[in-house]
Amino acid sequence: MKRVVIIGGVAAGMSAAARLRRLDEEVSIVVLERDRYVSYANCGLPYHIGGAIPDREQLLVVTPEHLRATLNLDVRTEHEVIAIDREAQTVEVHDHQRGSRYIEAYDILVLAQGAAPLRPPVPGIDHPRVFTLRSMPDMDAIKAIVDGGAERAIVVGGSYIGVEVAEALRERQLDVHLIELQDQVMPLLDIEMATDLRYHMELHGVTLHLGTAASSCADVDGRIAVTLRTGETLVADFVVLAAGVRPITSLAQQIGLALGKTGGIKVDATMRTSDPHIYAAGDMVEVIDTVTGEPTLVALAGPANRQGRIVADQICGRDSTYTTTQGTAVVKIFAMTGGATGASEKTLRRLGRAYRKVYLHPAGHASYYPGTAPMHIKLLFAPEDGRVLGAQIVGYDGVDKRLDVFATAIRAGMTVFDLERLELAYAPPYGSAKDPVNMAGFLAANLLRGDVAFWYPDEYEQQSAETVFLDVRGPQEYAQWHIPGAVNIPLTELRSRVEELRPVDAKPMRIYCMVGFRSYLAYRILRQHGFDDVATLAGGGRTFTSFYRTTLATGAPGIPFVSHAEEDLAAQILLDQ
Amino acid sequence: MKRVVIIGGVAAGMSAAARLRRLDEEVSIVVLERDRYVSYANCGLPYHIGGAIPDREQLLVVTPEHLRATLNLDVRTEHEVIAIDREAQTVEVHDHQRGSRYIEAYDILVLAQGAAPLRPPVPGIDHPRVFTLRSMPDMDAIKAIVDGGAERAIVVGGSYIGVEVAEALRERQLDVHLIELQDQVMPLLDIEMATDLRYHMELHGVTLHLGTAASSCADVDGRIAVTLRTGETLVADFVVLAAGVRPITSLAQQIGLALGKTGGIKVDATMRTSDPHIYAAGDMVEVIDTVTGEPTLVALAGPANRQGRIVADQICGRDSTYTTTQGTAVVKIFAMTGGATGASEKTLRRLGRAYRKVYLHPAGHASYYPGTAPMHIKLLFAPEDGRVLGAQIVGYDGVDKRLDVFATAIRAGMTVFDLERLELAYAPPYGSAKDPVNMAGFLAANLLRGDVAFWYPDEYEQQSAETVFLDVRGPQEYAQWHIPGAVNIPLTELRSRVEELRPVDAKPMRIYCMVGFRSYLAYRILRQHGFDDVATLAGGGRTFTSFYRTTLATGAPGIPFVSHAEEDLAAQILLDQ
């Protein structure tokens, strides 16, 4: 009888175990889990702290007893593997329940230990009130301190877990401070795409400390003081560390398995490690990025589950293989949703890849039907053939849906011309006859076909003194906000007043409106009237201010924008819609 | 100056006009619209009647004045084209505002007249209280009679418009009767997929008269009496006819343009009719079905808009072409959502095409996070290569999202093996680590790889007397409902009790549970224990009862199912979740 030992009983490990049993009734399957729980809903942990999931038992998807009864799995919790002997094909296990050790033999070993929270090398970080949130006991500890009357918390890290924890603690009425090294929340997004999320978090009472980090922690009468690099000191009842994760590879390193350059375990397409008797799956393995082809680490539940299935297939002699990971992810932040799939602009830049981009602000569904608000979409695509490289969306309704359509398009290798032709489900409560994804395709295809030229917010400061900024909105909109020095000719008057612009028709003309539609029409008119150096602002004033609201703190000069208070009001109006 | 005349100013016509102007500042564009309004939100009409869109002006997306100012379009409302002279390249126009007629010359003519409601040849159907709902005046008339205190309405037709109108009138507290010729609501869905929608409509107070039709209408003191083929007579304040639409082709026929076998105007991939100076777009043209390759008529806003764009491109000498229409559509019915993309099973059967199918009932998002309920998914795919042929979904949350992912997959020519690998956006409020679309792919791929064999609800009555039905649910579930004569061995006891089944191991064994997961595990166990003729019920008891609840009325014998009242309760519990 073949003996399969799986180290780790959550996403990848349990997927492998369950599928393995479905494929093979005979194989012996032992799952060794260091913690007290297996197959729990680790993505749900923040929501139990916050109260959205009141019943803790809901998170315990299945128990070892249930797994034995339905799948004949030998699941051993609080059993930690402390050594692997590749020659003998055995693992040494520490049974924390009994305090004993034993040797377990395997024919096939599966590593599915996941990733562990990064602990920044900060003095005092081992203070007992510094928590992480990866497991049920982690959650229980944080919830206990909140239930005990904690009033103030510090969250370190502004990515998925960090913002989910910050939201949860705000739901519990705590005073929440979030510290993020980057100058934005959700660093996986490009900076201008994170702006709305940032202000939305502030609107909901999270105090953000961006572009800084904790430099030390210290005890203050049982509470904890965190000093930032800025010199500021925050005192709180506890700290949640959510500064990212790294693969748990100590065992793998001990036995000399090959690691990739990212530090994750190197596996082939069959999920096999450098030892033919050892597979690995989940957060601990290095994968290939779908878009860039580069090795990368992606700690996401979906890929982990699929990799676990493939391990089981392979153990049973099947030919299924893992391809690539595109990093599709989404987060709920109070009333907003933000997410991404494929490559970001910062990644493409870092790798020196060619790309084009468009921005748009379509409503989640027909704007005349209640309950919608504009979302902010950024689409990245290849200049040569229009292949979709990445998409980012933040907004209120329908964000996750469009992320999934873009994710599917990327997986299918679709181009922006394909996006134009997608036939998506339309009725007023769900979308628009021209869906936001179609609209993104139209804009991108127009660019590649040469029907439009864009200028981008980040090019503003590089514009020459010669540049004419043309604002084609109405005079009231112009009065509220405009780019300094911009000429105002409303679109509806442009055809009759085009001769006013003749004296400057040789100068670069940079057109804009609020979201980009009117300025696109103006672009078309001016081009056909013989203006050659014309471009329309991608995403309009909304994307422009998103960019400069975020970078202003770092010193971009001369950009006026409506005050933070006014923006909060605008966000509130969106919420009320 | 090139003169383009467009007949029809709503979806296709207005898309053509707007894009044409963006591409060409010089061309003369005249839009002739028979009605009083152009470019209004015709999909929103039921929601103004129902009150979801209180402000009528919201539906008037743009006015002729706005179109002139922004796009320099010459839009003439209440101008009806009454004749076309192909030789002279002119149209004769009746100006209903002035009561005069004139001739307008064209270089290019665009037909975008759409489709008109079918009026069944029923005596009395021309009663003044029989309305249709295609235009703003139609809507105004219905809303006026509702506002005037109407108490009872009859809706003829149970497809998209019919159910939207029925919902709207229930929102206004009317007693609503809906008559549908088919034995189901939403005839575009396969019958078992319409069951939940049917009971949901009844739960919300719509009285359904299915499998029948109006045979006559008569005046009763200013109200209207509709007699059904069953002999029953319903008296109501008014009737809304929503029995489908047909292309408006009278003008096209007068001038001898080629029609397709569906009765729609025949166009090539450039949307050109048999007259090289005449294009056509929108509901009036025959298109090719993406999946079946057959000519078809599809009256949907998305394809109409895209076709309009292509007409404009063609007029400007560009090479964009229209490909196919897959008929992606969605409808909101009270708290439920239902929709489809690609081919239905009834279509594939009618055409004699080979297909396979799976059913599943995943939750819209992680079941431990509040606000979700199981949806019912049916996936149809090609036996030889797994290409996705069609998908239907009904449920509560996340239905439109999965429809769009399936729609994108069909457009990309993806297989069920590709669905397994899709990397979709997961966080507990939005989905599951194994998304419903992935799950559909897993089931379908398991079938094609031979890892599972399904039996289907519609095969129940063809089972031989030899067949052993094995119910692998718990005894309580078995007591509540089971297939007559089924043996009950809970999955958790199956391994230890498998020898009890040895005496019948040569007989056909048909396993089932509630949604199909436990019986799939049981299938895997029994197959590996040497049982050869084993199959698991696709979709489990939920799909089974969906099928037989619907067909029972037509006489399927011996199928027990929980009473309607209990089902209403079950639906209510779903809603409360």
From TrEMBL, chains A, B:
Give yes or no: UniProt keyword Ribosomal protein: no
Named cofactor requirement(s): FAD
Q: Name one Pfam family in it.
A: Pyr_redox_dim
Keywords recorded for this protein, A-Z: FAD, Flavoprotein, Oxidoreductase, Redox-active center
Determine if Transferase is one of this entry's keywords.
no
Q: Which residues form the Rhodanese domain?
A: 463-553
Recorded superkingdom: Bacteria
Renumbered to this chain, the signal peptide range is: none
Family per record? Belongs to the class-III pyridine nucleotide-disulfide oxidoreductase family.
This protein is called FAD-dependent oxidoreductase
> Can you name the source organism?
Candidatus Chloroploca mongolica
